[in-house]
Design a protein that fits this description.
With 301 residues, the protein is α+β, with helices and mostly antiparallel strands. The chain folds into two domains: 156 residues, Transferase(Phosphotransferase) domain 1 (Transferase(Phosphotransferase), domain 1), CATH 1.10.510.10; 120 residues, 2-Layer Sandwich (Phosphorylase Kinase, domain 1). The protein contains nine helices and 14 strands. The strands form five sheets. The protein has a six-stranded mixed beta sheet, with helices on both faces. A two-stranded antiparallel ribbon has the order 1-13. Strand 6 and strand 7 form a beta hairpin.
């Protein structure tokens, strides 16, 4: 699978912006030998000392975010995943302080589910990457809350939700996307990956999939969810050795087989997403005949 979409990503790599100051979706099931144990990590009190210094992130209190989301009302839920639920919240445009619902600007507030599969480690990775990396094709992290057992993240609001919704949950709210929009989304995602791969300290995204590709009101692409991201290999190393983590159907077979992580692992996932966008089929779909469960296996012949 590689050369075609590898070249697509390489072709946009020279246009990325610089890095500041730092040298359970329906698509498939998240997996990892360390995922379940990470839920217990969230019970351990941690300090802000683990968070890299970043002057552009706002520190919110839990009380503020309760106010901003109407006490995390079910009416404000935007979605849910391995991390927990995401709520619509409101903040003042200038001071960034939480405001009453309906006033100020809309944000997305992600709240860690203490019983979930992702814990403090992923929450911290999200802050430390998105707090330092800035690019038009990465979702903007506005701030966070670390108070007692509460861990929350506050992002810019993405009006058109995820690419997954547009591909697989069609209806009056998610009409089919024209081919021009699909290609715009694919190019934006490629630019986001190219920026990560060519950063001063390379970043491997490790969980590229349609549910992590968000769209703003103009269908501009923003990559989200950096909980599984890792720094790439340094020096003369060709790869990073890790426990296998990611999402079935998107993870590169050589990574699954060896645990050797490289930027090419992301490029494989990018190819799977392109197949989804072109075919309208999910990466993994157990509702289809057995020979068609895995999109890549079905598409190869």
């Amino acid at each position: 699978m590689g050369a075609c979409w590898s070249n697509c990503i390489k072709s946009v790599s020279s246009s990325g912006t610089g890095v500041d100051s730092r040298s359970r979706s329906r698509n498939g099931n998240n997996f990892s030998s360390s995922r379940v144990s990470s839920a217990s990590i969230s019970q351990t009190p941690r300090s802000e000392g683990e968070i890299w210094q970043s002057s552009n992130l706002k520190t919110f209190t839990f009380s503020e975010l309760k106010t901003a989301t109407r006490n995390f009302s079910p009416d404000t839920v935007l979605g849910a995943g391995g991390f927990g639920s995401v709520f619509k919240g409101w903040i003042d445009e200038h001071s960034l302080t939480a405001t009453k619902p309906g006033t100020g600007i809309v944000t997305a507030v992600k709240r860690l589910n203490k019983e979930g599969f992702q814990g403090h480690k992923e929450w911290l990775a999200e802050i430390n990457y998105l707090g330092q990396l800035h690019h038009p094709n990465l979702v903007k992290l506005i701030g966070y809350c670390l108070e007692d057992e509460h861990r929350l993240l506050v992002y810019e609001f993405m009006a058109w939700g995820s690419m997954e919704n547009h591909l697989f949950r069609r209806g009056s709210y998610f009409p089919p996307l024209p081919w021009g929009i699909r290609m715009k989304v694919a190019l934006g995602a490629a630019k986001g990956l190219a920026f990560l791969h060519n950063a001063k300290t390379q970043v491997i995204y490790r969980d590229f999939k349609t549910s992590n590709i968000l769209l703003d009101s103009n269908y501009n692409t923003k990559l989200s969810d950096f909980g599984l991201a890792r720094d790439g290999p340094t020096g003369d190393r060709s790869h990073v050795s890790t426990r296998v983590m990611g999402t079935y159907g998107y993870a590169a077979p050589e990574y699954l087989a060896t645990g050797h992580l490289t930027a090419k692992s992301d490029i494989y996932s990018f190819g799977v997403v392109l197949l989804e966008m072109l075919s309208g089929r999910r990466a993994v779909d157990k509702n289809r005949p057995s020979r068609e469960h895995n999109l890549v296996d079905w598409a190869k012949p």
